[in-house]
Amino acid sequence: MDKHIELNGLGWNDWFEQQAADMATDHIARVAAVDRDQLLLVDETHAFRGRVAGGYLHRHHLSQELPCVGDWVCLEKAPGDDVGVVRALLERRTLLRRKSAGDAIEYQMIASNLDYVVIVQSCHFDFNVNRLERYLVMVLDGGAEPCILLTKTDLVAPEVVAAQIAEIRSAGITAPILTLSNITRDGVDDLTRLLLPGKTYCFVGSSGVGKSTLINQLIGLEKLETKSVSESGEGRHTTVRRELIRLDSGALVIDNPGMREFGILGAAEGLGVSHSDITTLSSSCRFRDCSHSGEPGCAVHEAVQSGAIKREHLENYLKLTEESEFHQMSYAEKRKKDRDFGKFVKSVKKDLKLK
Ligand SMILES: Nc1nc2c(ncn2[C@@H]2O[C@H](COP(=O)(O)OP(=O)(O)OP(=O)(O)O)[C@@H](O)[C@H]2O)c(=O)[nH]1
Ligand SMILES: [Zn+2]
């Protein structure tokens, strides 16, 4: 049964062993990163590149059928060959996915084989139970265990945090709730205690809630760092992405760009719910693309003037949209700048503590 026991440190268990029993190949690896058609695979001793076999691509056309971060794959790799050819995916025990816009059967995979998904909200301005519910639905739909984490507790009074927890509970949400501050480090130990060796975690939530700061704390280093690359005398910044990280405790953490994007989309969708009055009014603005920040004939602005909508409510809306737009841009930029797969392989090896 435990043929592949050496993979346990990467999250392997009996459930996967069962899936692997009927597979034609014995060589199994986990997907640590995906960059379009390039894969970064890891097994017990190595991190190496992979690509999906042509035959597989021929037979599978939906995006959810292609490997995503966290997948276990069966591959062929000749000794001395540095690229593994993926022949099959093992069934996913759990997954995180979102529906592709306007498509009934296609899903966009975010990550798979997660044990826990930590839904992160900042108790400062990001807190929103509706959005929390949307994330919960997504997590439960994929079969992982949800956990709620409220960050930036240093920025609000303890009563505010207590009220937010009460609000979550009164919405009928029973998932565990943790609170922490990355500044005072209050609560960081409680979270660390939850991270078990050989289990896979991922953190989701809007941009700016403190996910990277937290993961840095967990790693204990300034990782996920922005590296300065000097090119033609100009300081250029390249974010070195690490997708599957093994903490010293042995817990596995997935932090990937898909997750970032997921955060934004989640926030944008959440905006529709928490600020539906504004989005509804938008249709009466003179300009179709009105940003409600001073254009003539803005119905939202008029509603603020007449007192029908609170000014803070609009300000909060503007702040959130601005953040998501900004983030989408910086995400696209990051993608462009982040194509150096070789460098990436190196950093992932380091993160997974492989030679
Ligand atoms: N006061 C306070 N600030 C924090 C805390 N955690 C993070 N921050 C700050 O909040 C900002 C955003 O933090 P990040 O860790 O980049 O947030 P993120 O969720 O990773 O955001 P993306 O990388 O955009 O997805 C940074 O300026 C952090 O220094 C916290 O607990 N308290
Ligand atoms: Zn307007």
From TrEMBL:
Zn(2+) binds at residues 285, 290, 292, 298. It is an enzyme of class 3 (hydrolase). CDD domains: YjeQ_EngC (cd01854). Its main location: cytoplasm. GTP binds at residues 151-154, 205-213. InterPro entries: G_CP_dom, P-loop_NTPase, Ribosome_biogen_GTPase_RsgA, RsgA_GTPase_dom. Belongs to the TRAFAC class YlqF/YawG GTPase family. RsgA subfamily. This is Small ribosomal subunit biogenesis GTPase RsgA. It comes from Citrifermentans bemidjiense (strain ATCC BAA-1014 / DSM 16622 / JCM 12645 / Bem) (Geobacter bemidjiensis). The lineage of its organism: Bacteria, Pseudomonadati, Thermodesulfobacteriota, Desulfuromonadia, Geobacterales.
